[in-house]
Amino acid sequence: MIEALVIILIKIAVVMGLLLLAVAYMTWLERKVIADIQVRIGPDRVGPFGLLQPIADGIKLMLKEDLIPAHVDRVIYLLAPSLSIIPALIAFSVIPFGSSTTLFGLLAHPVTLRITDIDVGILFVFGVSSLGVYGIVLAGWASNNKYSLLGGLRSSAQMISYELSMGLSVVGVVLLAGSLSLVDIVGAQQGTFWLLGILPIPNWFVFWQPLGFLLFFTCALAETNRAPFDLPEAETELVAGFHTEYSSMKFAMFFMAEYANMITASAVATTLFLGGWLGPVAPSPVWFLGKVFVLLFVFIWFRATLPRFRYDQLMYFGWKRLLPLALLNVGVTAVSAALWG
Amino acid sequence: MEIALFAGFALVAAVAAVLVVIQRHAVYSALYLVIAMVALAGIYVLLEGYFIWIIQIIVYAGAIMVLFLFVIMLLDIPQEDVLWARRDWGQIVAAAALSLVLLVEMVLAVGRGALRGAQAAPASAQDFGTTLTVGRMLFTDYLFPFEITSVILLVAMVGALVLAKRQFK
């Protein structure tokens, strides 16, 4: 009992620690990659290749003056950054990032590489991430600023619209795996999908559900407020959107929440469509982290490549393009599963 | 442990529900309603209804209340200066009477359940409340009520659209 509790606590500490570290270094990666794409050098002053830049940024943000404007709704204004970052971190608790390990024989019993596995895993991720929108909406309202309010309104409308298609896009995967548990979904992707000469194509759901994967990734971009869907903080129109009035560490918390959400979205996409931790030779966490890294790179690549949508285009695209496609995907998958499943 | 958790969730839900009513600003009311919803979800976990728990969070806390908040902000409802600005006695009496009926009903329901408790105890199987069990029950024993509910929701949606569109003509 005590041992199990200690193991869980250690797992939580390790996962949260690594997640926050990954969030910090995502900022470095993003600046470097975008600099490369735009033929610039990017941060290179602090440490080799600018590798200590995130640390310097963190110290700077903590030491900056923490400004609370006079006209804000104090309670909600102070609450909003936490409401934004807490769901982003909690969602990671059901993500399986490996099968199990004894840490090279150090432990007597193998330890599973996930914090927990629940029966409704994928729904849990959706539920918790849907709570994340409160942080943004309330920050926009409590700031008592026109730009902030517009950012908050945009984000709530956008997140509700795209959540619908996102939920429908994973129904195909759930139908194929026959379970909502993320561990079972990874387990269902074992084996070979097709033998291309001597090259075995793995049985990942991305090959069964190519449309589902595209829909999921598009909606994930919108849900995390990333370009080309970054209208809640469109700097050319809204100064900085919902976090215009925030400074110092409270601003940093919104920033961290956005990056943590990106990592969670990539991890969920990896688990649902890219076989999670499955892969030959290398240890399972390496495969998992590698796939997540590729998806995160695509996130950054999109930002450097695509211009922002106009607001009416965003709504038109979400409701009249993505939603019918997602419904079609569910229908086709359900009929095929009933006929051949 | 279970009793302590239940007491905690129930207390939070009840206090939050009262706070919903006595706030002067609609945004705060909505937020307390969110807290009440999440506390109710906690009680569902104690009842081992894991599927209902997460659906409660996704649908009520995650979607419906966000829409409430959206509308409140869009209409920019101002803060009321006094809590009891308009004291409408007819309304108060009607509300009290309805609450009393609801209370009596609940006491009766709980009381009868407690009396029958011994023989009507639920078959507390291992998979009670899981997605599989809930889904199977929903599409077999409770198929008719389930479909009727979806029709009722559809009627409400169509009705709202008709009312909204008529104003624009």
Provide a quick synopsis of the model:
The complex is a heterodimer of chains A (341) and B (169). Chain A has 341 residues and is mainly α. In chain A, 65% of the residues lie in helices and 4% in strands.
Could you walk me through the main structural features you see in this protein, from its secondary elements to its overall organization?
The complex is a heterodimer of chains A (341) and B (169). Chain A has 341 residues and is mostly helical. Chain A has one domain. Chain A contains 14 helices and four strands. In chain A, the strands form two sheets. A two-stranded antiparallel ribbon of chain A has the order 1-2. In chain A, strands 3-4 form a two-stranded antiparallel ribbon. In chain A, a hairpin with a 2-residue loop joins β3 (192-196) and β4. In chain A, α3 (74-90) packs antiparallel against α4, α3 (74-90) packs antiparallel against α5 (133-142) and α6 packs antiparallel against α10. The two termini of chain A are 41 Å apart. In chain A, 44% of the residues are buried. The model of chain A has no long low-confidence stretch (mean pLDDT 84). Helices cover 78% and strands 0% of the residues of chain B. Chain B contains six helices and no strands. In chain B, α1 packs antiparallel against α2 (26-46). Chain B has helices at 2-22, 26-46, 50-75, 89-116, 131-139, 143-168. Chain B folds into three domains: 1-80, Four Helix Bundle (Hemerythrin (Met), subunit A) (Up-down Bundle), CATH 1.20.120.1200; 88-116; 130-169. Chain B is mostly helical and 169 residues long. Chain A binds chain B through residues 73, 76, 118-120, 123-124, 126-128, 130-131, 133-134, 137-138, 140-141, 149, 152-153, 156-157, 159-160, 163, 180, and chain B through 27, 31, 34, 50-51, 53-55, 57-58, 61-63, 66-67, 69-70, 73-74, 130-131.
